[in-house]
Amino acid sequence: MPVPFCFNGLMPARYRPLAYTPPEPGELLSRARAFYELMRTRRSVREFSNRPVPREVIELALRTAISAPSGANQQPWFFVAVSDPATKRRIRQAAEEEERRFYAGRAPEEWLTALDHLGTGPEKPFLETAPWLIAVFAQSYGLGGHGRKVKHYYVQESVGLASGFLIAALHAAGLATLTHTPSPMGFMREILGRPENERPVMLIVTGYPAEDARVPVITRKAFDEVVRFV
To answer: Which pLDDT score, from 0 to 100, does residue 2 have?
Structure first.
């Protein structure tokens, strides 16, 4: 049974025992290595097959995403999974319109130079080809009773964590992914009918890669360049 627990002199919280079974000796390392070996094969893909992906797979990945930690457990996210061809077409048309403006002058030259080695451009056929688009929204505030605004904390960090969980879950299921962030993205809220308190963050494109899919030849920073033990 949950029991009240007073933290920092504030209102009592309710706690229950943690359901946790420690791994067997040696299993900790093998689990960590297996997950690393799985995730190191993940690549962003821009060439997708139109092969269908069952809704149940996407639903389970989203259940993983919403299990992510969040500031004050406010879960300031909303996901819209899109498979309807007409809606995907509208999203593609709106995204490409913004992307043309981006590549034609909105983006500074430095940004375009940074993107050059990826071979990206304003055309985004994968937004229609891939079987699923998952729109990620961040809720700047929640809505309580009688429309009362409830301030959310650590929104960006929380949504980033949930999005990472989602990408990992989709990859673990055997699907390819791409994070797509047309700028600005206000059209996503309009097309998908989301309220004013939600800000579109990204589209996660997912499905099977095309049989002839290619990915850019890139390198990762060395481990010691980005990690330090103290």
So the answer is: 61
